[in-house]
From TrEMBL, chain A:
Keyword Repressor: no
Superkingdom in the source lineage: Bacteria
One annotated GO biological process: tetrahydrofolate metabolic process
Family, per entry: Belongs to the GcvT family.
The GCVT N-terminal domain, residue ranges: 614-885
Protein name as it appears in the record: Aminomethyltransferase
Residues in FAD/NAD(P)-binding domain copies: 170-424
Gene that encodes it: gcvT_2
Species of origin: Flavimaricola marinus
Residues annotated as domain Aminomethyltransferase C-terminal: 906-991
Occurrences of domain SoxA A3 (ranges): 516-599
Keyword match DNA-binding: no
Automatic annotation (TrEMBL), chain B:
Originating species: Flavimaricola marinus
SUPFAM superfamilies: Folate-binding domain (SSF103025)
Name of this protein: Sarcosine oxidase, gamma subunit family
Gene3D superfamilies (alphabetical): Heterotetrameric sarcosine oxidase (3.30.70.1520), Probable tRNA modification gtpase trme, domain 1 (3.30.1360.120)
Source taxonomy: Bacteria, Pseudomonadati, Pseudomonadota, Alphaproteobacteria, Rhodobacterales
UniProt-listed Pfam families: SoxG
Membrane spanning stretches: none
InterPro entries in the cross-refs: SoxG, TrmE/GcvT-like
Amino acid sequence: MSTRLATGGRFIDRSQPRAFSFNGKRLRGYAGDTLASALLANDQMLVGRSFKYHRPRGVVAAGAEEPNGLVNLGKGQHFEPNQRVTTTELFDGLEAESQNHWPSLEFDVGAVNARLSRFLPAGFYYKMFIHPRSFWKHIYEPFIRASAGLGKAPKSRDADTYEHFHAHVDVLVIGGGISGLAAALAAGRAGVRVLLIEQTAHWGGRAPVDDPQINGLGAEEWINSTLQALEEMPNVQIRTRMMGAGVYDHGSVLCYEQLTDHIGPKDGPRHRLWQVRADRVITATGAIERPLSFAGNDVPGVMLAAALRDFVVNFGVSVGDRTVVVTNNDDAYRTAIVLKTAGLDVPCIVDARPAPTGELVAEARALGIRVEAGKGIAKVKGGKRVTAVALCAQAGEGAVLEEIPCDAVAMSGGWSPVVHLWSHCGGKLTWDEAGAMFRPDPDRPPTGADGEGFVLAAGTANGFLATSEALADAYAAGQIAAGIKKGKGPSALAPAEEPMAPVWMMPQGAAISLREKMWLDYQNDVKVSDVQLAAREGYESVEHTKRYTTLGMATDQGKLSNINGLAILSDSLGRPIPSVGTTTFRPPYTPISMGAIAGAARDGLFQPIRKTPMHGWHEANGAEFEPVGQWRRPYAFRRNGESTEAAVHREVKNTRDAVGLLDASTLGKLIVKGPDAGKFLDMLYTNMMSTLPVGKCRYGLMCSENGFLSDDGVVARIDEDTWLCHTTTGGADRIHAWMEDWLQCEWWNWKVYVANVTEQYAQVAVVGPKARMLLEKLGGGMDLSKEALPFMQWADGRIGDFDARVYRISFSGELSYEVAVPAGQGLAFWEALLAAGEEFGVMPYGTEALHIMRAEKGFIMIGDETDGTIIPQDLGLSWAISKKKDDYLGKRAHQRPHMTDPNRWKLVGLETTDGSVIPDGAYAVSEGVNDNGQRNTQGRVTSTYMSPTLGRGIAMGLILNGPDRMGELVEFPKIDGTSVTAKIVSPVFYDPEGEKQNG
Amino acid sequence: MAEAMQKTSPMAVVTALGPRGMITLRGDLAASKLKAVCKALTGADIPAAGHATVVKETGLAWMSPDELLIMLPHAEVPAAIAKIDAALKGSHYLAVDVSDARAVFRVCGSGAREVMGKLCPVDLHPDQFAPGQFRRTRMGQIAAAFWMRDAATFEVVCFRSVADYAFDLLTVSAKAGPVGYY
């Protein structure tokens, strides 16, 4: 059984007990424990069930690579699934629940899958569920979803807050082990700006456990003195509980800082996501020990050898009284030595190598530990716990030589450098035969803007597993990153190690019955036999095998399984490991919270909402808003409990009969000025703007270079070389950028300046037969008469107490003045209009009334009548295309055969025969069916409304040869199976002579 | 505008300032007439790229190789534009009043650098950004620009329509507490 030892544990403080619960059971640990060490101290070996077969699972690692120990953490608004027990620091009141079991962890119904595992091999789901097709959606998927999955999705809103931070440094060192410390020391001494980060709460990594001598000091002593030196350097910053999550182009690195996870729910941000810009990035991310593939290597109590001694040294926790060590290298002997020294029993070290003789081997033998060379584990006995191991010859097929009772197994298949961050941005790897590992290839780093490598792997992460080599490499990396010459770094003394021997399967000739029990991926339940099956079925690419078997696709992203899995694949394919290659390393290194990604962008700050100067008034007066670009515009102003539809109809009628106000501030306003401005606008608009007289307005169309209608609006000539171009609300920024693009990239020598003054003005459309009376009542001295300010002209002056620019333009067909005042006076102007207009029955109106009135008048709307495939000629707007100009953007495109095709659908009005409203988006059908058996079509509706003015449904649509078919009937099927019939008419339903707007 | 115009936290005080006179001036920044009129209006020389010469409410900020932002008291804008028009008559330039298109905020306090560092991808190390410098950048999800009024005070300008967002964002970042980096 696992238990707390009487002494030891460099991280824990035995004077500070911590109470926590696991599956409702009250347990105790100490300050400094991880959840994993605290569970083990309470003999909680079983921590979860596997994903597919619901096999019992225990803690296998001691750090970020842990695949099994995932729990639901916290409650309610602090609930979070899939939290790793090995990286979760213990605090008072922590509540954890195991995952993926039903009804309980100890007794799990789903474990029946384990007995069916012979029938659930790789690709089972693909093979089984593909036929019949309809079964997937209705039977298979719901069943699989119910039984699969790890943690539960949170049901409550997250009560915590999160934030971002940006930092710029010369050198970012990721990893605070001795290599990272040495690299930071070297760079710091060179005087450059350094940020050193460590994902755990402790500095020094695993060095204090194995305790090499550094510069004549004990490891911990050297670490502390180095930290002190770093803290004294003003150019160096160091931070713990901060992980390098991802490395991106241009030295951009995402780092994930956990601020309160170690103390539980608390005020202030829980996580901080850093975007660090670094000239050079040093990845001193260490190495991860590999499991060995023997039968039953997933039974709780089987653990990585280094993890097992970490628990003893760091937390004073023993995983078992009797531990068998199984290895292919010298390093695992350290575990045996640590256990023996702690007074625990090590019945045997099983070494796959035929004749190990290294210093550590000799030390273990001297302690009286039995070493079985050339042997392997045939199988592990036990279900929820290890009870014994059966030994066999490594070279054989698994005939059992001996059974050794034990309650823990420490395994080591060698070490893999953590190359993830090196690889994220394109750093390449090379296969190291001696270490049987992929290590960074220093000749193929990820390169930055200067063509040089911007990531340097350092120390163990660079493949230097021996302490002395790691320190020398890391110190040199720090100097190179800082741009100085290499000097001498710290020196280290540690026992010499003999070469390891690659062991990818134990025993090497294992029968299928054993291979079916050799786990590669603990979390996703992928075994040696699954990868071999995939190879037999023709999966040659490691990327395909990964997806077929799900190897390495769990939340741990294959930190333990990748190399073992691809070694099996390489063996099955008879190809060397380097030619099979690795799967792609993608950020983040370990999962980061969604909250950290969002940062402050939640609730009211989820996205910026653009507000006009009158927005607050709209909110206070019943406005129902709709999004238009990033703006919120009033859709309608509801009064006295009326429906939205009733409000819209009231607003239309009131505007047609009396006077309405529209907040038109969102419309884009671009000032275009310069000696070449007229020439420029003639190129941008399809019509002629250079000839527009000062004081007049002209409606204009803009096309893309492919001829499609892009934006429209009224242009006003302000003075000899200045124009003001109105754009659509959503088009303001886009058209501004479009203009700058042409001016900066194509016509850079044209003398034109553009300024976006959209937000400088509040603009109010005063619309209706009483509009002039209302404005005249406000006074100010402007002559607003038909003679002085006719339709399509503008004038500057005073309206009441306001400096105003008044445009006689109309998007409704009514007498209309659009009045622009400085935005700071917008609300006051709006309120002045409402007060003065009371006697005329003034009412504000929203965007829906605007839409209806423009449709009654047959005016097109960008985004309704256009969708990126429509040219002006389709919309009866040929009159707005100048025939006099040599060129304009889109002119050549308009001459292409497809654009001049007489069969392009063209704009018409549609009047339903029964007065009803055609559904939005409806298609007009024609005879017959197409090749797909679908009904042929001859047109579609682009805008459709109930017209309060006409008392009937009206629509605009694009119809085949429409303008030539006036009076013909077309049929629009509805989704309820019936159809509505409409007559093709002119799109101008209201005041076709324009008497009202001209009046 | 947000309900309070000023919010205080230990890191910094965030204040929404009143309207500031602002003129967008585009033209040849090396032209002597342009330099002269800018000097006459603000007392400042044309700033170098990435810099601003702002004293209290008055000064010049470098926006792009052919654009300056002229800052001065709000009431002085019409007269200033008239002066520019008179001085630059006959040359190619553009001067427009953008005072009402903008919102201005002040972030003042020992944690002001970190408040800005949470929101803007800018190197705010005191050696890298100090009074006299000017930066157009992103603040959260909006465009913004800022400069330092003094060693502990940032002035931030953004578009008027997103003033509420900007104020709330600055306030939330100040309230969340220090990072301990600068």
